[in-house]
Amino acid sequence: MTIRMYARRKGMALQHVSVDVTHNKQHISECDACEASATKRDVFRREVRLEGELSDEQRARLLDIADKCPVHKTLHGSAVIETALV
Asked: Which of 20, 38, 54, 69 has a CA between 20 and 30 Å from the CA of residue 78?
């Protein structure tokens, strides 16, 4: 959605955008106890497809904009989840 809004605002010829995300746990290299759960990190792989008559510069800029997405910022940051039973 962030990519689409930016492209529209800048008048880019973006026809369609799709994103596939996969997730896995990866051992952190250089750990003393690699079996402990704290030594694994979440790894998200994102594949962005941009369709339309776009220059290489526009494609690169739209990929940069993908990192400005609120979901990306949340996952990249140190989110805290607080749960209450009500």
From this structure: 20
